[in-house]
Amino acid sequence: MRYFSKFGDHISYLCLFETWQKRGFTKRFCQENYVHFRAMRQAKEVRKQLEEILGRNKNKIKKFLRHHEDSTDLLERTRDIVQDVLQIIAQCYFMNTARRQGIGGEGSNSNSSGGGAMYSPMADEKIMLRMHPGSALFQIVPKWIVYAQSTFTSKAFISVASAIQYSWVKKLLPKLHNCNDEMLAGCSLAALQKKTNGGQKSKAPKTELQRKKELAEKAKDRYKRRTQDSAVSDAKARYLARKRARLAGEL
């Protein structure tokens, strides 16, 4: 709760990372705040790599970084900087845009349920996802969000989500339903299906007569195996009987 931001989990993670940076990237800070040190160290490496990539490509981030270094706390910065970051996140995760259904938990029309609103992804509005209790947005229930991942246990949960404005993704959302599947696959849908099926042609569904015939054949095979097993057992019994008779005669 200490590092939760009303803007969502991505900004909350950024606040946590910056506080860790101010503490000298120490392991003790992670232990005191119940944060996985190895995960934070990996985040540090990823951030360093991203800064190097952006530097090599000469992207115009100097102004943002300069403001970043001069500011004492992300939560105290101008709202425009945070909104810029959120807009970038929204455009990166636009395929995971979701709209709130109702206000409170279970899609109700009140906040009495204590958070955990229900959301329907714009990619498939038939699906209902619940905001995870561990999210910074669990009690805030914004109307529009983008999320980085969803988990399915006994219920379907959204995790790592950020509050956004619909205008940021309005022009991108039609791509969810108008995408060119053949362009994405790099081949025709017929060729893709052939690759998926391993070059085998799809079989037509069996008729009732065919199913009955197969069952009769299986029953016949089972009877044949039982008959063969019985014949083998009888032959073995006769052999043992003859052997015992010979031994008795010798005695």
Describe this structure in words.
- The protein is α+β, with helices and mostly antiparallel strands and 251 residues long.
- It has 3 domains: 9-91, no CATH class; 93-176, no CATH class; 207-251.
- Helix content is 49%, strand content 14%.
- The chain starts with 8 loop residues before the first helix and ends with a helix.
Largest sheet: 5 strands, mixed, barrel
The residue fraction in helices comes out at 40-55%
| Radius of gyration, CA atoms, in whole angstroms | 33 Å
Instruction: Give the spatial strand order of the biggest sheet.
Output: 1-2-3-5-4
- Low-pLDDT regions: 105-113
**How far do the termini sit from each other?**
94 Å
Query: In DSSP terms, counting alpha (H) and pi (I) runs of 4 or more, how many helices?
Result: 9
Structural class by helix and strand composition: alpha+beta
Protein name: DEAD-box helicase OB fold domain-containing protein
Region (Disordered): 195-235
Pfam families: OB_NTP_bind
Keywords: ATP-binding, Helicase, Hydrolase, Nucleotide-binding
Describe the protein's topology:
Elements: H1 9-22, H2 27-32, H3 37-56, H4 62-70, H5 79-92, E1 97-105, E2 117-121, E3 129-131, E4 144-152, E5 156-163, H6 166-169, H7 181-185, H8 189-196, H9 208-250
Parallel strand pairs: 3-5
Antiparallel strand pairs: 1-2, 1-4, 2-3, 4-5
